[in-house]
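Encode chain A's predicted structure.
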Amino acid sequence: MKLSHRITNITGGGSDGWDVFYRARQMKADGLPVIELTIGEHDIRTSPLILGAMYDAATAGHTGYAAVPGTVTLRETVAARIAKRSGVPTHKENILITPGGQAGLFAAHIAVCDDGDTAAFIDPFYTTYPGTVRTAGAIPKVIVTGPETSFQPTKDALMTATKGAKSLLVNSPNNPTGVVYSAQTMQDIADVCIANDLWLISDEVYDTQIWDGTHITPRSLHDMAERTLVIGSMSKSHAMTGSRIGWICGPENAIAQLLNKATHTNYGVPGFIQDAAEYALNQGDEVEERVAAPFRHRRDLTMQALAGQNVVRAVPAQGAMYVMLDIRATGMDGESFANALLDEELIAVMPGESFGKAAAGHLRVAMTVDDASYVAALSKLIAFAQDRAA
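Encoded structure for chain A:
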């Protein structure tokens, strides 16, 4: 029997860009001591206090069907957090709780795109973006950036690429580059959305991981609240990746319609997980800062390790748990370098090409192992690159 084009075309008929990661995992399964600097998974686990709140909620009986849009108290807590940080009045009616940020991205595109609509996003991009767009029935379109602008999109490129499009997806702090979009870039994005009548989908799951610059949510800019859907998540801010809990924040009418989508798909998020998320958010900013602190420190360790040589250069590492390294001086592309590094040094990193064409000749390094292992792996990577350049 023939499967649908929608399901067989999620990756566009090619690789999803994760070949190095899958190979590294197999090598580890085979007993090799591979150091994985690939995915955005904390080297700590969810706090025992958060797990305790989850356990208490489950044993107290919150294990049945939970309210599909999310519990009232969690939606109020998320809304209050967003209002405090953005300055935009936000209420529970603006919030839909989702099973993780990825589910939120898919739901947002379902909400604003019809079959055959064009949905734009910026290259480099997180690897699931094209597949998310295709699964929603839309046509993906990339807006290419480059190292010459520190991977910040230009207004001209945004304006040209989004003519006739229905939506624009942005991500700041950015995965994979670690770049935080400037105030000017965010204003350019807003201007283009208004000029080209676009819905803006803003992926802000790394908003607690800012090392340089300031996080600006485009929803806070003039005339943008009614055309912006913000995706948030507990995964990165509270090391709750496996709990699969996030949210969409947007106009009340959009959230009301997204409730219909949730009713006919996942039918809500388990209540005990929602209660744990509410508990975590109510612990305040200090918890989020503690979770983020190791990545700020490792960003500094990265800059120290790179000092004194010019074969491996860092894209401005302003936020998120990654650093993007430019290895073009070796004469190798990112994919060839990453595969060779894995084979010869047992260090796994993601080639820039996994995230689109714009980051060719780069690597994304996840700063997600302990400091000593991270510095040792980074030193080997630099020495490996120097040998190739020589």
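The radius of gyration is 21 Å.
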